[in-house]
Structure formats: structure tokens, C-alpha cells
Amino acid sequence: MNKNNFPEKQGLYDAAMEKDSCGVGFITHIKGIKSHSILKQGLQILKNLKHRGAVGADANTGDGSGITIQIPHEFFKEEVKKCKIELPTPEDYAVGMIFLPREPNVRLFCQGIFEKVLRAENQKLLGWREVPINEDACGESAKATRPVIMQVFIDRNNQPDKVFRQQLLIIRKQVQNLIDNSKRANVESFYICSLSHRTIVYKGLILGYRLEDFYLDLQNSNVKTAIAIVHERYSTNTFPSWQLAQPFRYIAHNGEINTIRGNINKMNAREGVMYSKSFGDNFKKTLPVIEPGGSDSASLDNALELFIENGYSLEYSLMMLIPEAWQKDFSMNEDKRSFYEYHARLMEPWDGPATIAFTDGIKLGVILDRNGLRPARYIITKDDLVIMSSETGVVDINYDAVKEKGLVEPGKIFLIDTSKQKIISDEEIKQSAYKSKPFTEWIKRNKLTLDDIKQNCEAKSIRTETLLLKQKVFGYTEEELRKVLACMINNGKEPIGSMGMDIPLAVLSNRPQLIFNYFKQAFAQVTNPPIDPIRESMVMSLTQYIGTHGRIVDEVETETDKKYIELKHPILSNSQLEDIKHLDDDDLKAITLPIIFETDRKDGLEEALTYLCKRAEESILKGYNILILSDRNINLYYAPIPSLLALSAVNAYLIEKKLRTSADLIVETGDARDVMHMALLIGYGAKAVNPYMVYYTISNMIEK
């Protein structure tokens, strides 16, 4: 089992594919007035979301639940006196909620690492407190993996708010990395649920309606809060674990991030080039940004935390990570569109059906994905309570007490700021973001189109004899030409085929197969409604951007010009690719790398892939930021490396070397001719594809 108690990777199972679909809700007092009743009503929401959770064969063990509240200072001040700890004033100390191994020596080892890092970062430890629990409230399966739950108290010691928060992040990351890398037995249970001077998370592998029975703290009337976010987990086709129960440090998420593998790879690749002025040299101590072994929700929480601790507001960060549908909304304010376009170059969207509740202990809100595939409904009462949940009826409210009720629209943010004692509208939030910098002016100065770089380069032609020979090399069949390509030429769309398959799977076939044929579409059968790309074209986009961008995490670099190219779709004609090949200036510099190998060498393919990856790395270090992988130059002695194999090798190698975000990859290939082929190439890292053999084949078919 790995650190989250998932099985090790085996066969078709990979813990990296873990996702979940859940119930989420929150309650807050707009004016920030703390009370025990807010906690009780938050727990009531959790109880009423019972049907959103899941249980296994052990009916008393759920998939996980939890609650995020503000630090209850009055409660802790009295409670920790039993541990001989004197607490300073509210927000002048941080509380960490920590899962520790049950084996005593390993537990002491983990606590020792924590205290050692605290001392190294010149932070003051106030003490530890073991959290009282009722083990009878969790099922047998949960008991078997239950950690020891401790709270650690750290003095702020007169540090500025921003500095203290950054130090807490550095401490948490270093401690987790040191313990994970120690390779010591039984340290898998160690996990820091939260470490903050404003919020604390109580969570676990507990059924939601039993959470307060398990955590005795939650029964104490001195535990008061103005904010409560709750979450009931339903792990879709996955394994539950104590660590992956929600809420996380900032968010509680209902839904799935379908782009998660790409998001994680891109974030890992950025670590080699990005830096933070406010963190300085300490920024390296916060890496990796995405903690290994986390779920899609945990990874999103990590990414959000990166931007928040680098000075961005909660809502600004979420606008970057989960943008609304803007590319085809021509009624949208120009400055707002420019904001999204500017950040689309910096951060790919974390996309998928999602309702995400979030808080930093002062602000509290919810954001929906661009499609609005997960509902969020809210009620505002006359006595200044705001209740939000996946559905209505989660808290007993007198109808006469209701001031307003509604639902959050796709891509919109619903926010309560308890420091300002008001609800902030989506329009006000986004206006504040897009007015913060001159995004529109920057876009106008720097955006190029394919027409802007047109250089009247003559596209290469091909003889009929050579075309027929290359069609054989790339595996074209007469059936493909007549039934697939001809249909697309005549109708402008894919041919309609049966969902049934009466031919052997590629992996079982005795005939040579394109690598593309070994892939089948993955989809979530349980949670995702089908998407119609025609009727829902407003939220669909094929736009791609080519060009480098700023690398400073904590600064929006609109003062620095960086030219980039907008592609309306990722399929390039032969002449368009020729124009790109001739780019050679400070902002856009292209180089072509052949993806071919010697056929008469024993290990020719493997050696060619190794050399290709090395050349890609060297090219980036020399300043090239557009790498064109081309199999055009095949001949009697050199055969093409399958484009998907070459692309994925270069993509993975550059991610490993932390250079992937320093260059864009374009594929010039003869083996791609189907929509699925293009989708796979784009999915594996290509910004654009030039299927040159398709164009030559079409011209030849027309001439005939």
C-alpha cells in the first residue's frame, strides 16, 4: 500500500487516476460573528449530505468527511492549559492538525523532524496536544488505518502576516518531504491536514453524520466559528483514505478534474523555470508544488495554495485556474476577455465538472466550472446567514427568515468577505481582477496571428510516385482513402461508424498497427453527462497559444512584452508550418528536429529517441522555444519514428528536466490522419499538428 493506503500500481490500476464525486456545503455569518451554532449548523449540513457519501462492505466506514472552521481561540486557550501551553492573542499563533503513525517510535521520529524544521526556520514551538477522539464512531476498516491525531501550536513571534504564512508553507512542505524521503517504515500515515493561523480542518475516514461523535472537540460549546465548510466524500471507482478526506487546506470539491494528468505534468515542469521574488531562495523549499500521491482535488488545492501564498487573492487565483467560458463569448467585456487570454498563456485550465467551496478564514465562497455540471444553491437569511450546498434543504430554515435564494451560474463566483461584512458579486470580483493591470493593451501589443507571420514561403510539393511510396511507409490503406478520407473531404466531418468492434484489438492483432490504434477513449461512466460540442460550442475551444511567457510566480509581468501566436485550432496547413519554421527572433525562434531512425542499426530506434531528446534539451538551452518534430526526411535508410512515440518521449524528457514550459512542440507527421490521431498528439503535448501526408493525399485524390 502507498502513503494514502491505495494499492501499488499494478496491471491497469494506477493510484494517480483516483477521483471522487461528493457532497459539499458551507454556512457563514456575513458579519463574521462567531458562534457555536454556526458549527452545529455546518454539521447539520454534513448529516443531510449523507446520501452523497459512500460506504463499503463495512457499513460504519465511509469514504471520508470533514469540516473546516476558523480557529476556536477561546476553546484552545483553555484546553491547552492542560498541556501547559500559554497561547498568545488570536492570529498570533498557528495550529497544525496532523495525522501521525500509531507506532510510538515512528511517531516520535515524525514529531522530531517537525520540531527540527521549526528550529531551522527560526520558528517558536508552543507545544503539542493530542486530539481527543471516540474510536467507536468509526468502522472497523477505518480503525485499522486510523492515525494518531495531534495538534501543534506555533508562535507567530511578531512576524508580518505574509511572512508567517509563507513560513508555515515552507515548514509543511519541508517536513512532508523529509518524512516521505526518509524511507522509514510506517511513515505513510504522516499527513498535515492544515497548518494555519486562521483555519483548522477536522476530517477523517468517518461517516459525515458521525464526525462530531468521533472528534470530541466539535461537541464543546466553546468551539465557535463564523465559517464552516463541510464535505462528504464519494470516491468514484477509487479507494478511500484518511489523508484524502476533504476539505483540504483551502477547498472542498465536488466533481472531477478531467485534465488532471496534464495539469500536474505542466506544474511539475514549471518548477525548473519559475521563481518567486517574495520567497526568494526559500521558494525551492516549497517544491514540489503538487504533492505526490494526492487526488485531483488535493492537487488543485496545492496549485491554489501556490498562488495565494505568492500574494494573489483567493478569487483571482481561482479565475486563473478555473476560468469561465470566455473565448466565444463576444458579448464579454474586452478587458475581461484580455484578462483570461493573458492568463491562458500562463496556466492551462483545471477543467472538469466541479463545484468548489473555498475559504482562507476571512473570505468564503464557491466557484462553478464553465459548464456548470455540478450544482450549487444558496440561501441568504434576514439574520445575515449564508448557506450553500450541492442541493437545497440541508439546514432547517424558517421560510419567513429567507431574504434571498438562488443558484450559482456556470463559471461564476459567489463570495462572502467577513472582514468587509458583505457579499461580493461575481461582476465586482472580476472587474477588480481585470482592472488591476492593463491586460488589453498588453494583448494588443503582443498577440500575433498566422497572417501576421506570413512570409510567402513556398510549400513543398511531392511527386505521385513518392506519395504512393510514403503512403505505404505510413500504413495508409485503400479502405482508409475511400471510406474515411473521402468522406471527410466530401462532408467536412468524420464518417459515422458502429460502436461495435468486429476486428481484433491492436494489442491482439497479428498485423502491423499504428501506435494510435493501441489507445482507446477513457471516460467516466458514473459522473459525467455527455457533452455536445455543437450545441455547447460556447464552452468548447480549440484555441492554442505559441510563445514563452513570464516566469515570476508572484508578479503579473504586463510591463514586459512577449510576442505570442494565437492559433484558432491546432491543425496547421503545409504553408502555415513553413511560415512558423522561418521564425527567428528574440520572442519566437523555431528549429526542426527530425524524428527518423536508421533501419539497419540494431538499436537504431532506441538510439534515435535518446538523441532526439538530447537535441530537444540542447535546442531549448540555446534559446529555441518552438520545436518542430518532423518525419519528412525519410528515405531508403531512414524510417519514421512513430510521431506519438517521438512526441511523448520528448514531452516526458523535458518534464523530467524541468524544461517543458520553455518550449512549444509542433508535430509535422505523415502517420496522423484521423481525428483520434490528432487528439492523441495534442493530448501528449503537441501545440499543433501538420498532417502533411493528408494534404498531399487529398490533392492527389482530387486530381484523379
UniProtKB/TrEMBL annotation:
GO BP annotations, alphabetical order: ammonia assimilation cycle; glutamate biosynthetic process
Ranges for domain Glutamine amidotransferase type-2: 22-419
Protein name: Glutamate synthase (Ferredoxin)
The protein's annotated pathway: Amino-acid biosynthesis
Native source species: Clostridium carboxidivorans P7
Lineage: Bacteria, Bacillati, Bacillota, Clostridia, Eubacteriales
Top-level EC class: oxidoreductase
Top-level lineage group: Bacteria
Pfam family, one: GATase_2
Entry keyword annotation includes Oxidoreductase: yes
Keywords associated with the record: 3Fe-4S, Amino-acid biosynthesis, Flavoprotein, FMN, Glutamate biosynthesis, Glutamine amidotransferase, Iron, Iron-sulfur, Metal-binding, Oxidoreductase
GO molecular function, one term: glutamate synthase (ferredoxin) activity
This enzyme's EC code(s): 1.4.7.1
Cofactor: [3Fe-4S] cluster; FMN
